[in-house]
């Protein structure tokens, strides 16, 4: 359970050898224990024991007379868990290889990406399991290919509520989206094919909603390797590219995409560097990699619109989005400009964008900070800088300005091998993060009360 550091860490290296160290700390925080049994040549068994309270009683099981469900789910664990839950309430369930194998009057549960790629059965009812950053679900609902959506992770209560609706044949259709994306008379960009590359779920969700509000949809991938492969399969009009990612960073991915375009004689995609910072050498690196434009997080709808309008022939030089302010210890907890942007996007989309983004941040922000604290205990400044950047990027997208500023300072410390300085900022980071999370929860509660009134 002891951590270790890499001899020659790199920006694109995978893993830092701290997984079990972090697990052990989590377990200890929950006043539990973790055990391991290991036999050379056979493997290891880890056991975690934690006492957890039951917050509420489980919802009553629904009656499902006559309901027939087919599971077209490639992930074995997901398929097995849903199959077991359905069997518990007497639903007739079978496994199929593709959505198109559904039978008449059968409800087919599948991933939205599957249904978009493989198509469905004419006489079956398709229900898509969706995750954050899903680029297919909205279009499938609007086109009538899917009748309902179930968000992942799928809890038993949500599944049982769906079973009750499905038994009554009450599928929500467009109501499942709670969306009317790109309403109004503003300019829309549905004609553009877009690829978005970012390893951070908060960032992906903010960009996804912002694009939908402008009538555009994107394919999402989470690292540079996936981006290069996606660009080989399809000539995108626009590619939004993050910088620091696992597997392969955005700079390398952009260079490889440009090389592939030249070798194949294909038209040039418009690459937008969508990052938490571009200053000095970073701006020069993006320009050399072949990016066309830069967009700073957090971005406004107006600046996103400008970037999309710039896509196309005629771009001859790298355009920086605007000046980047230096880190300041006096940044507000919440960036009201970022929140106003999310609120405006939510109004256009008919969705609670702030609630979705802040919900993700409240879950993932503390986890990212805990990982940063653990890394700072080691001797890998590059890993500290990378994790500080990851949390900073997430914080900027969520409007957590104060957290972003202290992460910027910690990132610069890591890059300059000032590990003691980086460690000295952790208490401040934790205080800022705790205060930010409290403020987010307070505002979310106020909005919920106002909505009920």
How would you summarize the topology of this molecule?
Blueprint lengths: L18 H11 L3 E7 L3 E7 L18 E5 L3 H13 L3 E4 L11 E5 H7 L6 E6 L6 H6 L5 E4 L4 H12 L26 E4 L3 H13 L4 E4 L2 H10 L4 E4 L8 H15 L5 E6 L5 H9 L3 E4 L4 H10 L25 H14 L3 H24 L4 H18 L2 H15 L3 H6 L1 H27 L1
Parallel strand pairs: 3-4, 3-5, 5-6, 6-7, 8-9, 8-10, 10-11, 11-12
Antiparallel strand pairs: 1-2
Helix pairs in contact: 6-11, 6-12, 6-13, 7-8, 8-9, 12-13, 12-16, 13-14, 14-16
Q: For this structure, what is the CATH homologous superfamily of the largest domain?
A: Response regulator
Number of strands: 12
Q: Give the overall silhouette.
A: globular
How many structural domains does the protein architecture include?
4
State the helical fraction: 40-55%
For the record, the CATH architecture of the largest domain stands as 3-Layer(aba) Sandwich
Number of continuous helical runs: 16
What are the defining features of this structure?
5-stranded parallel sheet, Rossmann fold, 453 residues, 12 strands, 16 helices, single chain
């Amino acid at each position: 359970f002891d951590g270790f550091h890499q001899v020659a860490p790199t920006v694109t290296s995978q893993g830092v050898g701290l997984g079990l160290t972090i697990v052990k700390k989590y377990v200890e925080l929950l006043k539990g224990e973790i055990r391991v049994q290991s036999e050379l040549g056979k493997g290891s068994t880890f056991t975690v024991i934690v006492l957890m309270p039951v917050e509420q009683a489980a919802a009553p099981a629904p009656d499902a007379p006559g309901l027939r469900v087919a599971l077209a789910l490639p992930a074995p664990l997901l398929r097995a868990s849903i199959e077991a839950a359905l069997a518990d309430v007497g639903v007739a369930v079978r496994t199929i290889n593709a959505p198109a194998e559904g039978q008449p009057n059968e409800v087919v549960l599948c991933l939205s990406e599957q249904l978009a790629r493989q198509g469905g059965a004419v006489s079956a009812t398709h229900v898509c399991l969706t995750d954050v950053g899903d680029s297919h679900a909205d279009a499938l609902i609007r086109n009538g290919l899917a009748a309902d959506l179930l968000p992942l992770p799928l809890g038993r209560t949500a599944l049982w509520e769906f079973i009750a609706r499905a038994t009554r044949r009450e599928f929500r259709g467009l109501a499942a989206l709670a969306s009317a994306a790109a309403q109004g008379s503003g300019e829309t960009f549905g004609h553009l094919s877009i690829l978005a590359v970012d390893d951070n779920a908060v960032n992906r969700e903010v960009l996804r909603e912002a694009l939908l509000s402008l009538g555009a949809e994107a394919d999402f991938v989470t690292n540079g390797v996936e981006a290069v492969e996606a660009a080989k399969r399809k000539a995108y009009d626009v590619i939004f590219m993050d910088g620091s990612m696992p597997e392969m960073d955005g700079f390398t991915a952009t260079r490889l995409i440009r090389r592939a375009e030249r070798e194949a004689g294909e038209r040039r995609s418009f690459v937008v560097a969508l990052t938490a910072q571009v200053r000095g050498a970073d701006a020069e690196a993006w320009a050399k990699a072949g990016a066309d434009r830069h967009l700073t997080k957090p971005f406004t709808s107006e600046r996103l619109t400008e970037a999309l309008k710039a896509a196309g022939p005629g771009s001859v030089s790298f355009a920086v989005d605007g000046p980047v302010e230096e880190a300041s210890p006096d940044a507000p907890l919440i960036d009201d400009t970022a929140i106003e942007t999310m609120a405006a996007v939510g109004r256009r989309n008919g969705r609670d964008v702030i609630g979705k983004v802040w919900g993700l941040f409240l879950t993932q922000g503390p986890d990212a900070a805990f990982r940063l604290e653990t890394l700072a205990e080691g001797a890998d400044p590059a890993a500290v800088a990378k994790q500080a950047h990851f949390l900073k990027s997430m914080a900027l997208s969520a409007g957590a300005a104060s957290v972003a500023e202290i992460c910027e300072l910690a990132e610069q410390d890591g890059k300059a091998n000032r590990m003691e300085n980086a460690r000295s900022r952790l208490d401040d980071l934790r205080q800022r993060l705790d205060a930010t999370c409290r403020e987010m929860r307070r505002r979310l509660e106020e909005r919920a009360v106002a909505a009920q009134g």
